[in-house]
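Box 4.2: Ligand-aware structure prediction
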Amino acid sequence: MPAASNPTALALFLFLAAAASSAPSAAAAYANYTVGGNSGWLFNETTNATSTNYTAWAASQTFNLGDYLLFNTNSNQTVIQTYNLTTYQACSVDDADDDDFFQYGGGSDQFGQALSVAVPLTHESTNYFFSNADDGVQCQSGMRFQIDVQHGSGLPPSLNQPPPPPYATPPGPGTAESPPGTAVNAPGNSGSGGGAGVRGAAWGGVSLLLATLFF
Ligand SMILES: *[C@@H]1O[C@H](CO)[C@@H](O)[C@H](O)[C@H]1NC(C)=O
Ligand SMILES: *[C@@H]1O[C@H](CO)[C@@H](O)[C@H](O)[C@H]1NC(C)=O
Ligand SMILES: *[C@@H]1O[C@H](CO)[C@@H](O)[C@H](O)[C@H]1NC(C)=O
Ligand SMILES: *[C@@H]1O[C@H](CO)[C@@H](O)[C@H](O)[C@H]1NC(C)=O
Ligand SMILES: *[C@@H]1O[C@H](CO)[C@@H](O)[C@H](O)[C@H]1NC(C)=O
Ligand SMILES: *[C@@H]1O[C@H](CO)[C@@H](O)[C@H](O)[C@H]1NC(C)=O
């Protein structure tokens, strides 16, 4: 007798199918979004054109705590993250407090060096992103977007850490030699910002310290 014609077997099949389809969605609670999709995070200085409309890209997505934005870019652009609308509208960090923004990339003195930057979304609020390269021309020409980060499943344990300890001097000129895939801390940023890896490492240190204190 075919399983489908047996009510009990059919019910069991439907139950297993439902369980199977719901299991991956729990695992996929956190998502990574590639900014601009295949267009990447790029600006053409000859045409003053962005490689895609980032406002439109951002508007087509939903973002939650613990998700990452992945910027596929090069050292001709920067990635500035801020929660401060004034800084965003200025297309500049010149008047911003050091702890009011994070800068990723742009630390290289070589043009066009490939760079991949991963930015974790850790604030349930409006997040602003822009490139401050070319004295704000890139940003004014569309290298910027804002997103509203929702609560979703909340921060995962890996990101749910105490704030990073006070700022430490960034690595020296060797930073410019960092291979693609490394978030480079620009010399201009003396704030608490750093690559996600830098902050993750710092938080790891803090949790280790806390663990030592408690156990
Ligand atoms: C998202 O990106 C982060 C940072 O690069 C990485 O650690 C994580 O494994 C990625 N998650 C997925 C689902 O690709
Ligand atoms: C910028 O645009 C010009 C004109 O379309 C093109 O020739 C050039 O290759 C572009 N530059 C980059 C880096 O894509
Ligand atoms: C690009 O934009 C800047 C600032 O708006 C302007 O000075 C420059 O002439 C523009 N270049 C082109 C090719 O449109
Ligand atoms: C980019 O997309 C936004 C939202 O769809 C739209 O309002 C805006 O006019 C677009 N910008 C350009 C330069 O096309
Ligand atoms: C945003 O930055 C400006 C300086 O650029 C500062 O005056 C203002 O207090 C900041 N706003 C908040 C909410 O921190
Ligand atoms: C980076 O900027 C330099 C200087 O403006 C330019 O010559 C080069 O073509 C750019 N490279 C890319 C990949 O956009």
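In the box above, the bound molecule is 2-acetamido-2-deoxy-beta-D-glucopyranose. The pocket of 2-acetamido-2-deoxy-beta-D-glucopyranose (ligand 6) is lined by residues 45, 74, 76, 111-112 (CB under 6 Å).
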